[in-house]
């Protein structure tokens, strides 16, 4: 519910409230809100001493759900809901099938490749080799790819950024509000319903995190590499990474709010 109901709805509301006059950036942020957490959250969850197994399960479920539902949600939040709410906007030539197609390519293929590599690797060389030798070598490739994409997009958008830095700041504002509301709300909710600290930390980070790689890929594929939607997607990880790292410290500080289990005393 936090990931697929509250998260997209909150980003939609923030984007419309804070960027009513910037439809391209607003659309880019809504796409970001639809792309739910994946690998980056696992790193922050580990640093915050969260439940590693629960985080892995939630990330896997989010990845599969995005392949199935991302196109329909994009169509709903970009075309259907604004019209139902009477929100005026320029007509968007957004096809749910186009969004779904890019999602399938940029997320479905890596998921299938990861599944196949694990099956084949463990069958031929064993789990120990796969997890200790293979994964550490191939793991950084995704990070390098994201950094390369961000650098290229910023190079292409350099003129826009230089001419309108205030627009970039305005893109960052709803993102900051989103992370604060999603993380704080989820952390306090977990503590209120009696979850242990590790599960609460996992809940908070998986609820607040987003799959910016997918958001950037969809924005570039649907709207173009120099579009405002693509720029909004690029600003996303530049805000998310430092914010989530800062929230790791907040999470560790908040650990004192939880009672230690008897076996840990």
UniProtKB/TrEMBL annotation:
Give the UniProt subcellular location, in the record's own words: Cell membrane
Give the membrane topology, semicolon-separated if more than one: Multi-pass membrane protein
Q: Which InterPro entries match?
A: Arsenical-R_Acr3, BilAc:Na_symport/Acr3, Na+/solute_symporter_sf
Q: So where does this one cross the membrane?
A: 27-48, 55-78, 90-113, 134-156, 168-189, 201-224, 230-250
- The question of whether NADP is a record keyword is answered with no
Instruction: Specify the domain of life of the species encoding this protein.
Output: Bacteria
The UniProt keywords, alphabetically, are:
Cell membrane, Membrane, Transmembrane, Transmembrane helix, Transport
The record ties this protein, via Pfam families, to: SBF
Its main localization is membrane
State the family it belongs to: Belongs to the arsenical resistance-3 (ACR3) (TC 2.A.59) family.
Q: What is this protein called?
A: Arsenical-resistance protein
Q: Which organism is it from?
A: Nonomuraea longicatena
